[in-house]
Amino acid sequence: MKRRAIYYFVASLGLASSCWIYLSFEPNHHFQGSELPVLSTPNYQAISSYPINQSNQPAQLNDDTKIVQSEPTAATIKVDKAEKYSSFNVLILGTDAIGNEDSRSDVIIVAHVMPNEKKVAIVSIPRDSRVAVDNVGYTKINHAHIVGELHGGNKEGTQLVLQTVSSFLNIPINYYVKTNFRGFINMIDEIGGIDIEVMEDIYLGESSLLLHQGMQHIDGATTLSLVRERHSLQNGDFGRQFNQSQVLKEIAVKLLQPKQLPKLPKLLSLVKKDISDTNFSDGDLLSLAWLLNGVKASDFSYIQIPGHSSLEMDPLVKNNVWYWIPDMDEVKKITQDYFQRE
């Protein structure tokens, strides 16, 4: 009788544990819990306070420059109860830091995740894009991170990029992931490298390696060289943005294959230690992996920001520099076509 009672007790514990896991991480429950975090929303006042032509009144980066100090937490947005779960936006930043030095954001990507469709839209923002940065003026978007860091450290660097991207695309940002170069290399190696189709022969100047056209299996160091290379590409920085999106897509596809599901808790813990900063909790990552389990490369859309290049005054360096000038009519259309889909 005692042995049977023990069996019933163990079985009850197992059932309770399974129910807890299901209720905690199953996406329909996890992401529908009445609120999603909102880290930044468009700041229209900041944008309208700067004239289109900044060359006549360049701002100066000094000790008196005021940077938004709010931390990327706290705000929330209600989710429609009628939906299984809402779509959400993730900012992905790759900084050019090797260690703990102040850094610019070398990779700026926004992913719009649509759980109902199991699809992801990836928008790559050129790092030289001329955008409004709060309390600075129109400057390169990759300056936002280092400006924030200089005035408040890592959190302010993150927050200023979040705010800048949110205002530029006119969208809220719900989550962010930030990694530096060293973490990026380790992350790729942890998942055993990635398979990627190289569209043209590419000489990777950073590693002195010729990457041939066609399908290639590459490790972390080679992947890093690939996502940083632009000088040997026919399309320059646009070619680099495309390669960055391909790498991101292949990482997601490899992580989210059905055969990886039992390994995900251990794999995500290994990957997360090399992410320098994120507001994703372990539960968020597990639930997201469950939600997108089995996603294919064809489930990803890739969008670049159209525009033109121009030589303009930069308020930080106080000199004329080359910018990518976004076509704001097209940016508005991108927001409508991709970020307003549920």
From TrEMBL:
The chain crosses the membrane at residues 7-25. PROSITE patterns: PROKAR_LIPOPROTEIN. Residues 104-255 form the Cell envelope-related transcriptional attenuator domain. It comes from the Bacteria. Gene3D superfamilies: LCP protein. Keywords: Membrane, Transmembrane, Transmembrane helix. InterPro entries: LytR/CpsA/Psr_CW_biosynth, LytR_CpsA_psr. The keyword Membrane applies. Belongs to the LytR/CpsA/Psr (LCP) family. NCBIfam families: lytR_cpsA_psr. This is LCP family protein required for cell wall assembly. It comes from Paenibacillus qinlingensis.
